[in-house]
């Protein structure tokens, strides 16, 4: 068993590693790469994967669940509520119209019994959440109108799966309902099983309470333990737990995960959760697509190639037509309309689930099941190709690009912020308050979870996490931000961050806090222009007050202070270069004394050079 | 000298709210050999860098002071600049001849109309009369004070009118930048507006 698992993992991961970079290089997207990888390792080409492909596919379907959780995280309840009309309207119409148009085709054209045709047409109204969302993210289309509309339609479909699953057994006319129990409830829930509605309400309520009130404090406690893997484990625990619960309650795992995500979207731990779940989602989805590729039944396809090709073409054409009409109704422009229609034209992975349920309910026979499953897979395989063709050959003809133009501000998911501030201690919070007082809201990253809680109570938008981690910065929007401020008080971390910024976000203007002269030198060495020594201004202005107490005029000393700071900044940059010329190694303490000495010598010259000529100093001529 | 010959020193404490000055500067930027310095941006704390300012003055042959007229006077940073930079022994007084021969143009944006700045108008004195301290400052530094450029009534001006003033300004600046010898002297007219029309 152990050996088999390792071998399977090798094959699935290997297929992705080989095929995805090639697919990306060719510009056809990772989804198609995985699918092709799956076909290659599948039973019809290399034969590395056999019948177990189906099992792998079901197991990795959990990637879709995780993806919905992540989508939920990006969509707080308010934003979700604002989208309600497009979700219900566009999503609902899409399902109804598509099934209605598919029904006669399946009924007459493919001579299915009416009830079977109804079941299949409903299943075929589904589009692939996995393919579409992955593609949207990858091609950076998720903020376009087409992207948002696609998301709305997918969301409706994902929710619709649940009542559809309940509907399918009813369609089986007098059919013996072969109810297969997938695991049983723990005894505590046993009683509830007889009251499905109560169960449902309880489960939804429980997820609400859990996400709203329990997960936050739990993560807070976990965060305090400063164990990264424990945090990852907790994040997974939450997602898997909610999914399990919802599935047990007869609601789809995907919907449960999505709900939990939405409820956690306003939490301080949002970015951290996202960062921890993303890799799992990515790998599982990759395996899922590979498994889809591996389970394509070429025997069925080759048995009657014409029939299957015609079926795929008709289904996709009908879906695209309905989508195009809806897009027009909702006012999408030409290029967005075509993109939207093609994006969602495939039949999705939920069709497998629905077809399987239909089979269990004796609604469809094995031959038809295999045939329609092949149709689904083929359509999934074709849709990335269609998008590629659209991008290359169709889209360029329509000049209008709606990207980046927020035409409908109502359903903007989340505005990206220009400034990211990492470190929100005394230094960072003062800075943050000042920025905010002038109408600049920064995205704040802070690694002390206690502080995060406190500040959030005070209404700041603070996220929990180590601000020097690449992935966290990415999800905080570093690729789109303009300025990154580091108010972290650990010089080593700032040096690390400086390297990271140079390497991954060269467009960011980096403003960094330095503890003293010495780490300022190192930051300057790295080519950082905006270095702020934390004690410079405070100490000089303390000097102003002392001099004023000694009888100097305040305004004069204030001017002198500014001049001194300007001069000190200059000497900092000069000495940063100079210190490399020292031949011998000097112990830190020795070096400090030497630097001080040099500074004092320079200061003497500063006093000489900058004697103040302003406001004529010559004493009044005494009039005797 | 072939370096930029006009040094435009712009003083405005609330530049973000001044449409007129925005338009004027936009046009000024189209003229070659003009160095524009946004002084409130350079010295937000009034810590004028005297050495740097002197060096810039030496590099140019024409100095432009562009500013709004607040309480019949220049904004405080400009006064600070005059006080700190035009030092005794450098700009005036014994041995103070570093600015000798340079020309000075004052460019004023003003809320009131030309009519208000008349003997019988609301402000009782003309612009030229209010600007006398600056004229005399230039005089003392052996600089030639040119007839000033006035953009009056900026609070109620249409965009087209503003653009017309902008074009006029650009013409004036390019004449100065090219060292136009026929450029009118101080006593030729009250305001350069009267001569340099678009």
Q: What's the helix and strand layout?
A:
The complex is a heterodimer of chains A (624) and B (198).
Chain A: H1 2-26, H2 30-41, H3 53-60, H4 62-73, H5 77-82, H6 84-109, H7 114-124, H8 129-138, H9 145-171, H10 187-190, H11 196-224, H12 228-248, H13 253-264, H14 270-294, H15 298-303, H16 305-329, H17 334-343, H18 349-360, H19 366-394, E1 419-422, H20 426-437, E2 443-446, H21 449-457, E3 462-464, H22 470-475, E4 483-486, H23 491-504, E5 509-514, H24 517-525, E6 530-533, H25 536-549, H26 554-578, H27 588-609
Parallel strand pairs in A: 1-2, 1-4, 2-3, 4-5, 5-6
Chain B: E1 6-10, H1 19-28, E2 34-38, H2 39-42, H3 50-59, E3 62-68, H4 76-85, E4 103-109, H5 127-130, H6 132-140, E5 144-145, E6 149-151, H7 159-177
Helix pairs in contact in B: 1-7
Descriptive report:
Residues 175-189, 399-415, 583-589 and 619-624 of chain A have low confidence and may be disordered. Chain A has 624 residues and is mainly α. Chain A has a six-stranded parallel β-sheet, sandwiched between helices. The N and C termini of chain A lie far apart (113 Å). Chain A has three domains: 2-40 and 47-174 and 186-397, Na+/H+ antiporter like fold (Up-down Bundle); 416-534, NAD(P)-binding Rossmann-like Domain (Rossmann fold), CATH 3.40.50; 542-610, no CATH class. Chain A is elongated. Chain A has helices spanning 2-26, 30-41, 53-60, 62-73, 77-82, 84-109, 114-124, 129-138, 145-171, 187-190, 196-224, 228-248, 253-264, 270-294, 298-303, 305-329, 334-343, 349-360, 366-394, 426-437, 449-457, 470-475, 491-504, 517-525, 536-549, 554-578, 588-609, and strands at residues 419-422, 443-446, 462-464, 483-486, 509-514, 530-533. Helix content of chain A is 67%, strand content 4%. In chain A, helix 21 (449-457) links the parallel strand 2 and strand 3. In chain A, helix 4 packs parallel to helix 13 (253-264) and helix 4 (62-73) packs antiparallel against helix 14 (270-294). Chain B has 198 residues and is an alpha/beta fold. Chain B has a single domain (6-194), classed as Flavodoxin domain (Rossmann fold, 3-Layer(aba) Sandwich). In chain B, strands 1, 2, 3, 4, 5 and 6 form a six-stranded parallel β-sheet that branches. The longest helix of chain B has 19 residues, at 159-177. Chain B is globular and about 45 Å long. The two termini of chain B are 29 Å apart. Classes of the chains: A mainly alpha (624), B alpha/beta (198). Chains A and B meet through helix 26 of A and loops of B.
């Amino acid at each position: 068993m152990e050996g088999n698992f390792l071998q399977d993992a090798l094959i699935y991961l290997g297929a992705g590693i080989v095929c995805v970079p090639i697919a990306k290089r060719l510009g056809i997207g990772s989804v198609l790469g995985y699918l092709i990888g799956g076909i290659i390792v599948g039973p019809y080409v290399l034969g590395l994967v056999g019948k177990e492909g189906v099992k792998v596919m079901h197991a990795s379907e959990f990637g879709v669940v995780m993806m919905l959780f992540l989508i939920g995280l990006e969509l707080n309840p308010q934003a979700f509520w604002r989208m309600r009309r497009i979700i219900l309207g566009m999503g609902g119409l899409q399902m109804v119209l598509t099934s209605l148009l598919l029904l006669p085709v399946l009924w007459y054209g493919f001579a299915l019994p009416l009830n079977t045709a109804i079941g299949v047409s409903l299943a075929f109204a589904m589009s692939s959440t996995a393919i579409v969302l992955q593609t949207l993210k990858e091609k950076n289309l998720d903020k376009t109108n087409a992207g948002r509309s696609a998301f709305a339609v997918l969301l409706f479909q994902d929710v619709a799966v649940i009542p559809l699953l309940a509907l399918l057994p009813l369609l089986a006319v007098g059919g013996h309902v072969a109810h297969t129990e997938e695991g049983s409830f723990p005894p505590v829930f046993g009683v509830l099983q007889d009251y499905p509605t109560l169960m449902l309400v309880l489960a939804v309520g429980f997820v609400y309470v859990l996400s709203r009130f329990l997960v936050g404090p739990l993560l807070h406690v976990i965060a305090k333990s400063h164990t990264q893997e424990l945090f990852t484990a907790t994040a997974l625990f939450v997602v898997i737990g909610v999914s399990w619960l919802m599935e047990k309650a007869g609601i789809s795992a995907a919907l449960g995960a999505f709900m939990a995500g939405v409820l956690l979207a306003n939490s301080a731990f949002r970015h951290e959760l996202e960062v921890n779940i993303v890799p799992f989602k990515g790998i599982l989805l990759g395996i899922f697509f590979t498994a889809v590729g591996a389970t394509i039944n070429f025997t069925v396809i080759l048995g009657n190639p014409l029939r299957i090709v015609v079926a795929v073409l008709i289904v996709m054409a009908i879906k695209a037509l309905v989508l195009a009409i809806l897009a027009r109704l909702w006012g999408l422009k030409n290029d967005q309309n075509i993109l939207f229609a093609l994006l969602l034209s495939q039949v999705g992975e939920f069709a497998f689930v629905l077809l399987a349920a239909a089979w269990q309910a004796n609604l469809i026979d094995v031959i038809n099941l295999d045939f329609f499953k092949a149709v689904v897979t083929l359509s999934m395989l074709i849709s990335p190709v269609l998008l590629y063709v659209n991008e290359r050959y169709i889209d360029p003809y329509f000049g209008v690009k709606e990207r980046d133009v927020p035409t409908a501000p109502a359903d903007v998911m989340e505005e990206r912020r220009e400034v990211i501030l990492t470190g929100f201690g005394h230094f960072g919070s003062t800075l943050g308050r000042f920025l905010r007082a002038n109408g600049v809201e920064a995205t704040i990253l802070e690694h002390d979870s206690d502080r995060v809680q406190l500040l959030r109570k005070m209404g700041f938008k603070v996220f929990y996490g180590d601000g020097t981690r690449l992935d966290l910065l990415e999800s905080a929007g570093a690729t789109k931000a303009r300025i990154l401020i580091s108010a972290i008080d650990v010089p080593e971390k700032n040096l690390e961050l400086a390297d990271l910024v140079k390497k991954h976000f060269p467009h960011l203007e980096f403003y960094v806090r330095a503890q003293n002269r010495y780490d300022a030198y190192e930051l300057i060495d790295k080519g950082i222009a905006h270095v702020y020594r934390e004690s410079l201004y405070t100490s000089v202005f303390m000097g102003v007050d002392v001099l004023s107490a000694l009888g100097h005029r305040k305004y004069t000393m204030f001017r002198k202070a500014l001049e001194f700071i300007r001069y000190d900044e200059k000497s900092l940059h000069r000495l940063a270069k100079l210190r490399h010329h020292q031949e011998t190694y000097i112990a830190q303490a020795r070096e400090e004394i030497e630097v001080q000495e040099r500074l004092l010598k320079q200061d003497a010259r500063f006093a000489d050079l900058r004697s103040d000529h302003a406001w004529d100093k010559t004493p009044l001529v005494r009039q005797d | 000298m072939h370096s930029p010959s006009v040094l435009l020193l712009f003083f405005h404490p609330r530049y973000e709210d001044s449409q007129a000055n925005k338009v004027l500067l936009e046009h000024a930027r189209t003229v070659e050999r003009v160095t524009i310095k946004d002084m409130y941006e350079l010295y937000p704390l009034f810590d004028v860098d005297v050495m740097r300012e002197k060096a810039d003055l030496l590099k140019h042959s024409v100095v432009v002071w562009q500013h709004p007229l607040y309480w019949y006077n220049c904004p405080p940073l400009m006064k600070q600049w005059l006080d700190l930079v035009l030092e005794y022994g450098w700009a005036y007084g014994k041995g103070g001849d570093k600015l000798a021969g340079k020309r000075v143009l004052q460019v004023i944006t003003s809320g009131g109309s030309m009519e208000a700045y008349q003997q019988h108008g609301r402000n009782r004195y003309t612009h030229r009369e209010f600007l006398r301290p600056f004229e005399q400052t230039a005089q003392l530094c052996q600089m030639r004070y040119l007839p000033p450029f006035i953009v009056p009534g900026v609070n109620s001006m249409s965009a087209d009118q503003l653009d017309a003033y902008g074009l006029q300004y650009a013409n004036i600046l390019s004449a100065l930048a090219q060292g136009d010898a026929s450029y009118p002297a101080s006593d030729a007219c009250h305001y350069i507006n009267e001569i340099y029309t678009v």
